[in-house]
Structure formats: structure tokens, C-alpha cells
Amino acid sequence: xxxxxQTESRVADATPDNWVYRWLPPxxxxxxxxxxxxxxxxxxxxxxxxxxxxxxxxxxxAASGGFRLWPFLAHLFLFFVGAVVMRGAGCTYNDLIDxxxxxxxARTRSRPLPSGRATRGQAKIFxxxxxxxxxxxxxxxxxxxxVLGIASLAVVALYPFAKRFTDWPQFFLGLAFxxxxxxxWAAVFANVSLAAVVMYIAAVAWTIGxxxxxxxxxxxxxxxxxxxxxxxxxxxxxxxxxxxxxxLTLALLxxxxxxxxxxxxxxLGLLAAGIAFVWQIKVLDIDDTAQCLKLFRFNHIVGAxxxxxxxxxxxxx
Length: 317
Description:
- 75% of the residues lie in helices and 0% in strands.
- The chain is mostly helical.
- The longest helix has 29 residues.
- The N and C termini lie far apart (57 Å).
């Protein structure tokens, strides 16, 4: 297969200049697509709640004089690798469950399974391999965190089926994608505090918001085949729902910060994130699929802004 053929075999919502298409051998490309390595936004959005929670825990540690830089950096590295591999495993699992649905949706029919570039058997083996790497990462944490991480699999397993029985599949995605808001704190303190739980709920609201924007890309196809989503539920009222969801995200993050007694700089990060949320809502055009994808991806920047506020708020000696 030539380089041009690889570019032609890319999935619909991946950029052609991605490293997957430029550097990987042809045989590896379908596996990279199953893991969504050509679309990094997924692992980025999965990673940020982990980083937020680790940043909040670091602030609490530093206030009591117990903060150490290298364990903090090690945790961030583990959360980064874990987000990449577990997002990949989750997406591969999701593709196995949604094989037939993906074949009926314009944006997803180019994925490896519906396009025939990978078999279900190959996808299953690849999913297990990624999950094993994730397990190795998880075993680097304390026992409480290991049990907590394993518990998240119940939500992950349920998510692909949610679009079949509820208009709120994005809520179930939020439950899964926000789990890191509990893990970052647990990795440090081997428990789950009220502050971490409130941060988790904030991340769920954030996920529902940004994934509703994403789901507008498939709204028409979903209606034809009977797939449910908040994009279809919200419809023309999406902007108002985003005001509520993003507003709830900011309010709950502020409450989590207050419970953890964080410094003022952390709140400046929320202010900057709030400005970014307002911009998203102001420019949103739910009928412009390209713009919906752009705004969805922009939430990576929002996650980074919130983490930057937490990082700069750490009271180093």
C-alpha cells in the first residue's frame, strides 16, 4: 500500500497530516485507528480530569508541607499513558459493539471494522492487549486506586449501549470519562474526598456539554437509524443547555476548590475557562459539522487552562 492509499483509508474525522498516516506501516494503520491514535482529542479529554484531581491533591499536600515534585510528575506521566491506552481499549470495545451502527453513519463508516480493514477477531485481540497495558499502569498505584480503577470498567462496559435506551448517552460517557477526577486524588491520599466527588460531577457536566456539540455531527444519521443522543434531545435549544452544563461545571469546580481550600490562582483558571465556554456558546452553529468538531476539540484547551490554574496555585516553599 502506498502512502497515498493510507491517506485515502483515513477515517472521516481525522486530519490527513496526522503522524499515523505519515509514519506507521500500512498494516499498523487500522489498529491505530481502532485506538483513535489519529484523533488524540479523546485521550486528551480523558486525561484532564486526572490531571485536575492530581493538581488539587498537590495543592492540599503542599499546604501541609507534604508535597514532593517527583511523585507528582510520575503520577501525571502514568495518567497520560493510562489515558492513551485505556481510551484506545474503550474505543476498540465501542467499535465492536457499534459495528453495524457505524456502517450506517457517514462519519463512522470509514472506521476499520465497517470498512473491512480489520476483522472483529483482530479488534478483540488488540483490545485485550491495550487493556493489559492499562492494567500494568494501574498496578503502579496504591491498592485503593487499583480497586477504584477496576470499578470504572462497569461504566465503560455500559456506555456503548446507552444510545439504545436513553436520550442521555453523553451522561454515561461523562461517568466514564470523568473517573480520573476521583483517581488523581485517590492516588495521593488512598481515599475519595468530598472535593474529589464534586470535581467528578463537574467533569461529568463538562463531558455532556462538549460531547453534545460533537454529537451534532451525526444528528441526521442518528435520527434515521434510531440512535439517541443529547444532540437530538437538545436540538435548537443546545446553546441554552450548554449555558446550564458549562455553568454547572464552573460552579462545581469552584465548590471543589473551596472544599480543598485552594488558593486564588486556581479560581483565575476557572475564570479563563469560563471565557472559553462563553465563546463556544456564542459561535456555535449546530448545523455546521466542521465547526462542531472544531469546538469539541477546543475543549482540550479548556482542560489545559483549568489544570494550569491548579498548577500555578500550588504553594511551593
